Amino acid sequence: MRNFCFCWLPLYILLSIPSSSVGQFQQKRCFEEQSLWQKFQYDIGNVFKGMGHVYSRPFHWDSNDFVTFTSVAGGTFLLSLADESAQDFFEGHADDVPQGIRDYGWYYGSPQNNYMLTGVVYLTGLLTKNEKLRRTGVLLISSASAAGLFQQAGKYAFGRARPRSGLEYDHFRPFSFDKDFHSFPSGHTVLAFTNAYAIAKQFRSPWVKAGIYTIGLVPAVSRMWERAHWLSDIAFSIAVSIFTVEAVDKYLDKKYDEKYNSNQKKLNWNLKVSPNGIGMALTF
């Protein structure tokens, strides 16, 4: 009977069949009776399905989504016009930054450390039967994988020269295997801020969220200190992180009963473009 419930539960959720209170009780009981291995299989399936959900979103965009995409693309282009000035500023202050912070920026944003962190979060939730933490782990792994794969493909497709190459910000060599032409987007920024944005969903306080976002931005800034990325690379990568986490999280709403903070205030990110400058505004 236990195996029967496990086999039909994903299909039941996928089809979104309205259920009665009795059906909901049976579904919950079936889910609770799953073994750790069955839950693990269910979660890994949602990791990959969440990635697929992210990649399929452009096919479901409405007019507002296309406006947002156009704003991000246009804002990234306009911001790139200030790339060289911004790079000069960050390079000029690199020696003033403590080495510990620079090292943190490198290690936290690297793929191996990223998956070590996300894996610990997920396994802790699974083994302690903490459903909210378990869902967070699935969100972290799925989001990081989707965004990480996208940025890797983007690096090869665009072939943008890194600042350390000595070339200008608008120099591109598409499909190059030379890492000096893998500037856009920033992998460290994508992974670090994806983690920060997903973890921040665990907390209601906007001030705690802002603190976590700040920590997540250190690896992004560190890449400019190290002459690895331009400012526009960083900005676009942050937008990718936010979009990815929100898309995966929305998908997981259909797969898990537990939600971190379902009554939390919604945070709105808005790209602001004006004749005097460009910025990202957070409203809460």
Structure commentary:
The chain has 284 residues and is mainly alpha-helical. The chain has a single domain (2-26, 58-283), classed as Vanadium-containing Chloroperoxidase, domain 1, CATH 1.20.144. Helices cover 65% and strands 5% of the residues. A two-stranded antiparallel sheet has the order 1-2. A hairpin with a 2-residue loop joins strand 1 and strand 2. The longest helix has 28 residues, at 131-158. It is globular.
Please trace the helix and strand order, writing H or E for each element. Answer: HHHHHHHHHHHEE
How large is the count of helical segments? 11
Mean pLDDT: 83
DSSP summary, beta strand count: 2
CATH architecture: Up-down Bundle
CATH domain topology: Vanadium-containing Chloroperoxidase, domain 1
Q: What does the oligomeric state look like here?
A: single chain
Largest beta sheet: what is the strand line-up? 1-2
| Rg result | 21 Å
Question: What's the overall geometry?
Answer: globular
Biggest sheet record: 2 strands, antiparallel
Computed structural class:
mainly alpha
Distance between the termini: 47 Å
| Domains, number | 1
Level of helix content? 55-70%
Into which percentage range does the β-strand content fall?
Answer: under 5%
